[in-house]
Design a protein that fits this description.
12 helices, binds nicotinamide-adenine-dinucleotide, alpha/beta
C-alpha cells in the first residue's frame, strides 16, 4: 500500500461513518475511496457511470464488505437521491474534466458539470448529510494575472469547463444562504499521482511526460512550454478531502485552493522527469492550446485556516511516489 494511503490525515473515528464518493472510479475518487476503506470507514459508496473512470481503479476494493459500487449517472436526480441513503459525508468528484474536451463539446460538459452538480447538491441537502464537499478547480482564476492566486480574486473564465466550476461555486454559495447547507469547494491545482490515466486525448501532463520518457519518446510542449503550474500530489488532495469533510462548525460556504504552493514550468518539469529516469530526451514544441492558463500558483493559507490543510508531499516526493505506476 502506498505511503500516502497509510498516512492518517484525520483524528476522528471514521468507523462510525458512511461516505459517498461520486466519480469514485476516477483518479481522485478511487484514491480517496482506498484511503477511507484502509482507515476503517463503515461504508464507502461510489457513484460512477464510468464515463472516464476505470473499473480497475476500484477492483481491489471490491473484496471489502464495506465497499459498494452504484453504477449510475449524476444527471439523474433519482439516482442521486438513492446514492444518499444512509450517507453521512459526501465527496463530489464526478465531472467531465479537461479544458479541451469542454471546448470541443460544451453541451455535454455543461450537462454533467452543472446539471449533475445541482442534482448532487440538492440530493445531499434533502438527505441532510453532515457535510458535502466538491471538486472545484484552479481554472476558475481564468484570465486573472495575479499571483499567487487568492480565493477572492477570480478572473474571467477561459473555457466552458472553467465556467462550469464557477457556476458550481455560485450554486453552493446560494444553497448555503437559502438552506443553511454549508459545503466546501476544493479548487484543485493540477493534481497528479498513481491511478491517473495516461491514455486518451485528454490525459494530464505528468502522466503524459512519464509515459513519453519511459518509452524514450519526446514530450510535446504546447506553445513555448514556459507555462507554470502548482502541481499537487494526490496525497495532499486526499488530506484536503478528508479534513474538509470532517470539519465541524462551518457557518457558510467556503471555496479553498488545494495545491502545494510552489510552481515549475513545463520545460523544467520535463527535465526533472528525464533526470529521475536517467534520460535526456529533447521535447518537441506544438501550437499553444486554446483556453490554456499561462501561470498558476496558489496561496494555500485559506485551506489551512478553514480545515487545517497541511500538504505533506512536494513535487519531488510526489513524482517518486508516482513513477512506479507508469513503469509497467
Ligand atoms: P476522472 O475523470 O479520473 O474522474 C471523474 C469521474 O467522474 C470518473 O470516474 C467518471 O466516470 C465520473 N463521471 C463523469 N461523469 C459522470 C456522470 N455523469 N455520472 C457519474 N459519474 C460520472 O477525473 P479526476 O482527475 O479524478 O477529477 C475529479 C474531479 O476533480 C473532477 O470534478 C475534476 O473536474 C476535478 N479536478 C481535477 C483536477 C486534476 O488535476 N485531476 C484539477 C482540477 C479539478
Amino acid at each position: 500500500m502506498n505511503s500516502y494511503i497509510k498516512a492518517q490525515y484525520h483524528y476522528q473515528d471514521i468507523s462510525k461513518f458512511s461516505f459517498l464518493i461520486t466519480g469514485g472510479a476516477g483518479f481522485i475518487g478511487s484514491n480517496l475511496a482506498t484511503y477511507l476503506l484502509y482507515h476503517g470507514a463503515k461504508k464507502v459508496r461510489v457513484l460512477d457511470n464510468l464515463a472516464t473512470g476505470n473499473l480497475s481503479n476500484i477492483e481491489p476494493l471490491k473484496a471489502n464488505p464495506n465497499f459498494e459500487l452504484l453504477e449510475g449517472d449524476i444527471c439523474d436526480l433519482e439516482t442521486c437521491n438513492k446514492a444518499m441513503e444512509g450517507i453521512d459525508y459526501v465527496s463530489h468528484q464526478a465531472a467531465l474534466g479537461s479544458v479541451p474536451r469542454s471546448i470541443k463539446d460544451p453541451i455535454t460538459t455543461n450537462k454533467v458539470n452543472i446539471d449533475g452538480f445541482l442534482n448532487v447538491l440538492e440530493a445531499a441537502k434533502n438527505a441532510k448529510v453532515k457535510r458535502m464537499i466538491y471538486a472545484s478547480s484552479s481554472s476558475i482564476y481564468g484570465d486573472s494575472k495575479i499571483l499567487p492566486k487568492v480565493e477572492e480574486n477570480i478572473g474571467k473564465p477561459l473555457s466552458p469547463y472553467a465556467i462550469t466550476k464557477a457556476v458550481n461555486e455560485l450554486y453552493a454559495d446560494t444553497f448555503s444562504k437559502h438552506y443553511a447547507f454549508h459545503t466546501i469547494g476544493l479548487r484543485y491545482f493540477n493534481v497528479f499521482g498513481p491511478l491517473q490515466d495516461p491514455n486518451g486525448a485528454y490525459a494530464a501532463v505528468i502522466p503524459l511526460f512519464f509515459t513519453a520518457a519511459l518509452n524514450n519518446k519526446p514530450a510535446t510542449l504546447n506553445g513555448k512550454g514556459d507555462q507554470t503550474r502548482d502541481f499537487t500530489f494526490i496525497g495532499n488532495v486526499i488530506q484536503a478531502n478528508v479534513k474538509a469533510m470532517l470539519v465541524e462548525n462551518l457557518t457558510q460556504h467556503e471555496a479553498c485552493n488545494i495545491a502545494f504552493g510552489e510552481r515549475i514550468n513545463l520545460q523544467e518539469l520535463w527535465v526533472k522527469i528525464n533526470d529521475m529516469l536517467g534520460k535526456s530526451i529533447d521535447p518537441v514544441f506544438g501550437p499553444p492550446r486554446a483556453g490554456d492558463v499561462q501561470d498558476s500558483l496558489a496561496d494555500i493559507s485559506k485551506a489551512k485556516r478553514v480545515f487545517g490543510y497541511q500538504p505533506e508531499y512536494d513535487l519531488n516526493e510526489g513524482l517518486k511516489e508516482s513513477v512506479d505506476f507508469y513503469r509497467v
